[in-house]
Amino acid sequence: MGSDPISFLDAQGTRHAPAGPGARIACLVPSITELVCALGLTDRLVARTGFCIYPRAALAEVPKVGGTKDLNIARLRELAPTHAIVNIDENRKPDAQELARFIPHLIVTHPQGPEDNPVLYRLIGGIFGATAAAESLCRDFEAAWREASAACAALPRERVLYLIWKDPWMGVARDTYISRTLAAVGWDTLPAQAERRYPDLTLDALPAGTARVLLSSEPYSFTARHAEDLAHRFPATSVNLIDGEMTSWYGPRAIAGFRYLARLRQSLANQGDARVSNP
Fold it and tell me: What are 208-224's pLDDT values in tens digits?
């Protein structure tokens, strides 16, 4: 009995055979578009969303097909991709179902924590014949994780309120990629229990035990003024701006993200009682 042919399993449980050299990729996930380019596959991209912006120069000529949640399906039909890369959190299920009607291969992704990055690298690299580049990224990721773990090992764990939106205020539950990334460098997000992955918050008072408030740069673009306002409102708690791409983007940015978070944690620890700071 012969061995099974090589295939790669996506987050939906679908097995994908290696693509041929004529594959045409529509990547509809910003962080994975960056990964496709990092794997040396830019020339196979035929479509991206308007939020797929890295690397800027390499993507300048790749057609845009709307946003992650408002895809231009008609334009995608015209571009005739053979493969579309989507994400359970980033893209709408009805859109993915519609794409599956005319795109032969729909690759579904769903990294749930930083440890899923090597799996993602190998999935995309394996399908599109970039295994060597994928393994190189895996090594870089593992090195960055080790460096960040070592840098943060001596720092006390802190409970943090990580805010992603204003009006209404919104945070992150622990069952999110962001929260698991922060936990890897010693920041445990609050609230500890939440019914929704991105819960609404009243902010009449901070959750008990909050040592620090982190204001993300995305999807809401918090500024120093917001930090000053919250610091005035909660004078016993430090308030800091943080680069949201470094906590929420998987792919190659997760490698830079670990190094950034380690530097940020050390910098904030060295500031001692400083209540407001920029990243």
Answer: 999 999 999 999 999 99
